[in-house]
Amino acid sequence: MFKGKYKIPGPKSKELLKISDRYEARCMNQQAPIVWDYAKGVTVTDVDGNTYLDLTSGVLVTNVGHSHPHHVACIQKQTGRLMNCYDFPTPERIMAAKGIAELMPKHLDRVFMLTTGSEATESSMRVAKRYTGKFEIISFYGGFHGRTGMAMSAAGKTGTKKRFGPLIPGHIYAPYPYCFRCPFGKKPTSCKLFCLEFLDTVVSAASTGDVAALIIEPYQGAAGFVFPPDGYLKGLEKWAKERDIVFILDEVQASFGRTGKMFALEWDGLRPNMLCLGKGIGSGVPCAALVAESRIIDCLAPGEMSSTTGGNPLSCSATLAVLDIMKKEKLPENALKIGKYMLGRFKKFQKKYKILGEARGRGLVMGLEFVKDKKTMDPAPDITREFITRACKSGLLVGSVGIYGNVIRVAPPLVITKNEAEQACDIIETVLKSFD
After folding, report:
1. Burial class of residue 57 (count of CB atoms within 10 Å of its CB; 0-12, 13-18, 19+)
2. Which of 65, 229, 244, 327 has its CA 20 to 30 A from that of 413?
3. Angle CA 172–178–182, to nearest 5
4. Separation in Å, CA 375 to CA 193, 208, 240, 424
5. Among 278, 311, 329, residue at a domain's last position
6. Over the stretch 28-41, which tens digit does the pLDDT of each residue have?
7. Residue 118 and residue 249 in one domain
8. Could you report the per-residue pLDDT of 73-120, keeping only the tens digit for each?
């Protein structure tokens, strides 16, 4: 079904892309030259009738799969009742907040419903500044927290903020443990988490003594699905607590089953002071949330922070449907099982194919880092772009991420079956062979 050789773009896609070039801003990314028409589960069909396996989840959004019947039914029902309400609570908003809070560690007991991940991260930093009375924020090389002003200023990735300066003052950047490309030239087996130890050096050199918070992703998405070594995040949490620094965990991408647990914090037993949620929370419907300790977020008076469409009943109905589906269909467990199979296949590919420098991941979020040479580890963004095109022609949708644009992201909807995963891995191997 997915192994035919498609000629892309097809005639209808080509026509629509021509109109897009004429009228749409060109600031958005285009991974492959096709135009999506409709989707179901893990299958996407373009306007020319070509069918693909989707390993993107629409950029890690559609966790419950495309057009899940229960998700669709809840959204359709809500559109006929009420779609937006700004200054008044609704049953949907209240119950969505309750549903999220009940899944949290007990200390995270307040939920602020929002619309986008950028809003969630931006809000977390604003709350931390108000609560502490300080203004500095520590973030990490390669980090991505959104494209609004403060979120962009916290970015450790040049592409997010290039030529958009000046940035908001008070942002301090520290190395993230990207072990495949360690900035210190160390090995994870012997470094003893040197990058964590180095944090004190960073702060002593860059801070004025007014550190309010640090914000970090449990794995770095935009930097190339980079996972820290065991013990790093818990050690970082301890480091922040000892220095009375608010610990913000950005799970906009990592939450709602993506890593094989409902929330990535569960892997290390983390207890952040604030947690940022988004993407999979609405599974295609824009929604986000900031979850915080009441002792921290209660520093704000009523009306001091809000969002025009944040917590709207349509988005909250979608979130409630996602929570139902996650529980009933055990999607985090499926992500763990299928992810283990896929990563196992990818590790074998890593040993077999010269362009694949590293395969890494957890659950259904995996990165395939392409290199020109395994000895020099020079990044291979050109190969990565060509891989995307060849995969698309073979019926598989993937995208690229990474500081160097040389990492293929593998992040299918969490409803993917073993058979679909096998087909996807087979196509990936066929495309890898074509580069030999």
Report:
1. buried
2. 229
3. 95
4. 24, 41, 37, 28
5. 329
6. 778 899 999 999 99
7. yes
8. 999 999 999 999 988 999 999 999 999 999 999 999 999 999 999 999
